[in-house]
Amino acid sequence: MTNCVALLRGINVGGKNLLPMKELRELLTKLGCENVATYIQSGNAVFKYSGDLTDLPALISTAIESGFGFRPSVMVLTADEFEAVATVEPFAEEISEPKFLHIWFLQEPATRASTEKMNEIASGDEKYLLTDSAVYLHAPNGVGRSKLAGGMEKSLGVSATARNRRTISKIGAMLSELG
Which distant-in-sequence residues (6+ apart) come within 8 Å of 138 by Cβ? Predict the structure, then answer.
């Protein structure tokens, strides 16, 4: 059994793409996931899985589409893949509040990323770090005010989903509890 994290994108936002977490847990269980736990309403799940992880994101998306009428983007990471991203602290000395650090998990390396464009739209206070699997953004004025956050995916040229440091820390703790 492999410990995994599923990150769903664009659910339960602004009254659209509604998916209760209880029903997400049931859906994942029907797909063969075990010990499923979710965190907040934005589509974060941890679980154990013994099948082929390659097809699992598509299976989850298809099952949600069948049951709820919309098809979210789903990223499934092993615990090791998640931890490799989660443990990086590029701006540890500058961040007073975890809510000011957001991490975009990338579907694939952003080989076509326009760092020139990212530098152009980032405010003077913002800092970012781009790796093969994530972008770390320190937005001290809030991610809602960040033009870089708003244009992140377009600048990257790949699909991504973001979480703040608090959420990532909680998901990490939930993974630890899976054993």
Answer: 90, 91, 94, 95, 100, 101, 126, 127, 128
19 and 38 in contact (C-beta within 8 Å)?
no
Phi, then psi, of 131 in degrees rounded to 5 = -120, 180
Residues contacting 121, CB < 8 A, separation 6+: 147, 148, 151, 155
* Model confidence, pTM: 0.92
Structure tokens at 60: 């989850």
**72-83 pLDDT, tens per residue?**
999 999 999 999
Rounded-to-5 percentages of helix, strand, coil across the chain: 35, 25, 35
d(CA 26, CA 37): 10
For the chain, domains (ranges, CATH) are 2-83 (3.30.70.1280), 88-170 (3.30.70)
Query: How far is Cα 111 from Cα 126, in angstroms, rounded to an integer?
Result: 22
The answer to whether residues 98 and 166 touch, using CB atoms and an 8 Å cutoff, is: yes
Q: In this predicted structure, what is the pLDDT of residue 96?
A: 73
* Long-range CB pairs of 66-69, under 8 A, 24+ apart, other chains included: 67/23, 67/27, 68/17, 68/18, 68/19, 68/23
- Local structure of 168: helix, strand or coil: helix
CA 22 – CA 41 distance, rounded (Å): 10
